[in-house]
Amino acid sequence: MNEVKKQIAEALSKSNRAPAKATAPASENSSGEDNYIYSSAGKYISTETGVYLIKPDRDGTEKTIRVTHQRLDVIAIGRTAKNQGYSSLLEWEDIDGNTHQEIISQADLEGEAKDVRRMLADGGLRLKSKSGSIDYLIDYLRSCAPDRRFIIVDRLGWHKNKDGKLFFALKDKVIGQSQEEIIFNSTAPDEALPALEVSGTAEEWRDNVANLCNYSTRATLGVCMAFAAPMARLLDVPTFGIHLKGKTSRGKSTVACIASSVYGKFSSYKKSWQGTQTGMEGLAYNYNDLLLPLDEISNIDPKDVSNVIYAIGNEVDKNRGAKNGLNRTTKTWREVVLSTGEETVTEMLRKANLKAQAGLEVRMPSINAQATDDEEMGVNESFPAGYNAQSYKELLEGNCKKYHGAVFERWIEFLITLDPDNLREEYTRFRDSFIQEYRPTNQNRRIANNFAFVAFAGELATGAGLTGWEMERETSGHSWAREAVGICFKSALDIIGNGLPIEDKKALEHIETLLLENRSNFLNGAIGSSFAPSPCWGYRLLVGAPTVGEVFYIPPTIFAKNFCAVMGEKETAQLLKKYGLLETEAGRLKKRMQFSNDNTAENHRKPYYAVRQFSTSDLIERLTKQAD
Fold this sequence. Notes:
Elements: H1 3-14, E1 37-39, E2 42-47, E3 50-56, E4 62-66, E5 72-79, E6 87-93, E7 99-105, H2 106-109, H3 113-122, H4 133-143, E8 149-153, E9 157-160, E10 166-169, E11 174-175, E12 182-184, H5 202-208, H6 217-228, E13 240-245, H7 252-260, H8 266-269, E14 271-272, H9 277-286, E15 291-295, H10 302-314, E16 336-341, H11 345-351, H12 358-363, E17 366-368, H13 389-402, H14 406-417, H15 420-438, H16 445-463, H17 480-496, H18 502-517, E18 522-524, E19 538-543, E20 549-554, H19 556-562, H20 569-578, E21 582-583, E22 591-593, E23 606-612, H21 616-627
Parallel strand pairs: 5-8, 8-12, 13-16, 13-17, 14-15, 15-16, 18-19
Antiparallel strand pairs: 1-2, 2-3, 3-4, 5-6, 6-7, 9-10, 10-11, 19-20, 20-23, 21-23, 22-23
């Protein structure tokens, strides 16, 4: 017996395995009771000292070839719930004795062998360098067919078992029942996946974090959004976001920290707005059925922000091609996004001279981070006795570091116990009541639905004993969750405008801003002068009844170039006329005028868009009163 055969015999003895029997081999691609794995190349055996191939030599004797220097086993075969993506679960020990487990697809075993070898080598498995050994390694992995089976999920969140019952997949565990073994396997690096860490208990989080949100509607909103995210799929609520807008040091990050504490530690759970559309789609997929906190919207290029918001809201990635030229599996997701920044999305785009689509405000409406007129209060309406803004902030953020994550698992366990039909009925009643109370316009109905959904999640979590909040407040008769979220919804309406369609509001705000910032570029049409500003945008005249104020006379070329960023020239003029902000004549949108300081007029009138000075906020207030 040569030295290699001695090693095999010793390894079999150490592993309490019987030596190979001198009998006819089992059928190809099967695993025999004699602990050998058979293939057309011969028979393989995995021992403590490595994987070996024993094959017939030319002279009829058995030749032993070493494939690896350490044990390597295929311990299970897996597939997706759709019976695709068959894969092998490999287990081996590295050179330091640490156990590794890795999933490799059967398709990869049919691809580049060097990629498989590289993956194993990276995990500390010493491979035989002799020519041909890589082919034996692939042949061995293909031939292993253990009885153990599992289902592969590559996305966190809700899945269904064979009976149609829901379970929630995490990286290292499954919440709920599944008839089959579930293994999470993502192609994303660990740092790209949400850090779902647990510190303390759900009760400690409730008493030391959630309970302190009674002093801040914004903090309460953040926690309600965190509870809402896993419910979105259950209630078929599409992905949406809420943007917390305000100056620095007003508490925006504290709200995001509190919301993130439902899942883990803020510093490792949060993500940045910085990234490409493709990268943000991957991020949305990784945070499926979870809250996605995106910090500081100014980190993303204004040219990309619209595409990213629409991409996340569309809940599906672009159907990009795979390496083999075929379309790869489409990735989908569902989540709630909590965004922060100093400006609203519309303000950010306007500064960059970019058009803001109306759908952006629907998918991600903004609320003011500052909860009161007192800037020192920040996101808070009040403080606990003995605290100010800074000490209260330090208390909350310190408690979030101590207590986080446990309440999320408790929440999922609670949701699984609920009857889906009853849950939908309760939500529908709650949403309809919320809508009836706040009476949003048709334009704002979807936004109102989202806030109602967030409030419902907070109230449900309160009823489950997870927040410690009041279920019926004397001030409103509602739960604290509903009252606080309703106050935040009013803030969103203050920014969006409840009596004015979003697209109209954007266009009017753009025009109003330009007129205020560029008043000096308009010549006083009542005073003859040879002086002309540069650039000259037209003329202005002070008018009286019925409305006292200035009228700006803007040449069509200037109007089209500068004032029509939101909609076209004709649509913008018709909009101004619709709200009584445009002076017209003879059924035309333009008004012909002659000014004394127009040296080129030569006694003939020219057409202008005659825009009255106005305030968009005053217009919204007037329209809202008319609606009431």
